[in-house]
Hints:
mainly beta; two-stranded antiparallel sheet; elongated; 11% helix
Amino acid sequence: NDEVELTLPGGERLTAVVTHASVETLGLAVGVEAIALIKASWVLVAVDDGKPMKLSARNQLKGKVLRLTPGAVNTEVVIDLGGGNSIAAIITKTAAEELALKVGKPAIAIFKASSVILGVGT
């Protein structure tokens, strides 16, 4: 496997772990533009309560809640990462309530590097 780091337009850094064959097939190298896709159900949401968080997930992107769409069981949470980037998460409605998520509130999108799918333009 190879580790690939992308710098988002807002300055946040995102890490992906992909096969070496994928890196070669996509032509990934320093300076090559790529996109990252993360399935919403793979993203965890946290809020900063002032206590240090130690997690095994490499990607911990800070932003602000842009949109909440509650459903009967789950809530879609969209976090604005700045620089025109956002990430969506699907969490339980109960978790969204316990985290007291509100539009404009700071939040952290957390996901493992192995959950990132990379792509490049043609």
